[in-house]
C-alpha cells in the first residue's frame, strides 16, 4: 500500500509539472520586423498585421548602434513621435520586451527623424486564451511577416523528457525498495 501511494504521488506530481510546463508552450518570441529587424527599411505595419501578440509572448528588437527603442506611454505620443516622453529606452542592440498584460503598447526608434519616417510599431496584446490579430502602425517599405517561435515544440519535448525521467526514477525506487 505504501508503494502504490508513493507511485500515485509521483504520477500526480508528474502530471502537475507537465501541465505547468505545457502552459509555457504557447508563448512566442516575436523578432520585431522579421528578418529585417528593427530598421528604417522595414514595413512595421505589414509585419505587425501578420502577428498575434499574446500575454506571455516576448518582443525582440534587433538593431544596429544607430538605432534605439523607445517605449511610448500613449497613442498621442506615438502619433506625434514624441520619443522625449518615452517610458522606457533601450539601446543595447538586442532588446527584449515581455508582454505581461493585454492592451496596446507603442514603440519607436529614438534616433532623431526615424520615427517620423515610419520606424515605429503599435503592438496590441490579447489575453493568452484569445486569438485575435494585432494592430500596427503606418510605416514605409516592405517586410516579410515572420515570427520566431522558440518555445512550442521545444518546451513540449522538454516536458516529455522530464516526465520520462520522473517515471524512470519512480520505477527504480520500486525495484530498490
From TrEMBL:
Matches recorded under InterPro entries: Cupredoxin, Phytocyanin-like, Phytocyanin_dom
Entry's transmembrane regions: 156-176
Signal peptide: 1-27
Residue ranges constituting the Phytocyanin domain according to the UniProt record: 28-127
Source organism superkingdom: Eukaryota
CDD domains reported in the protein's UniProt record: Phytocyanin (cd04216)
Name the record gives this protein: Cupredoxin
Species annotation: Artemisia annua
Amino acid at each position: 500500500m505504501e508503494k502504490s501511494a508513493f507511485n500515485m504521488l509521483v504520477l500526480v506530481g508528474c502530471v502537475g509539472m507537465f501541465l505547468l510546463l505545457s502552459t509555457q508552450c504557447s508563448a512566442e518570441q516575436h523578432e520585431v520586423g522579421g528578418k529585417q529587424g528593427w530598421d528604417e527599411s522595414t514595413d512595421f505595419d505589414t509585419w505587425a498585421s501578420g502577428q498575434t501578440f499574446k500575454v506571455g509572448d516576448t518582443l525582440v528588437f534587433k538593431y544596429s548602434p544607430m538605432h534605439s527603442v523607445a517605449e511610448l506611454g500613449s497613442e498621442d505620443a506615438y502619433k506625434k513621435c514624441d520619443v522625449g516622453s518615452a517610458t522606457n529606452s533601450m539601446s543595447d542592440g538586442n532588446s527584449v520586451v515581455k508582454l505581461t498584460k493585454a492592451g496596446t503598447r507603442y514603440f519607436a526608434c529614438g534616433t532623431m527623424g526615424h520615427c517620423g519616417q515610419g520606424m515605429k510599431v503599435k503592438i496590441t496584446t490579447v489575453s493568452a486564451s484569445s486569438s485575435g490579430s494585432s494592430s500596427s502602425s503606418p510605416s514605409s517599405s516592405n517586410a516579410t511577416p515572420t515570427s520566431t517561435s522558440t518555445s512550442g515544440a521545444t518546451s513540449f519535448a522538454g516536458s516529455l523528457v522530464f516526465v520520462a525521467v520522473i517515471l524512470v526514477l519512480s520505477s527504480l525506487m520500486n525495484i530498490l525498495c
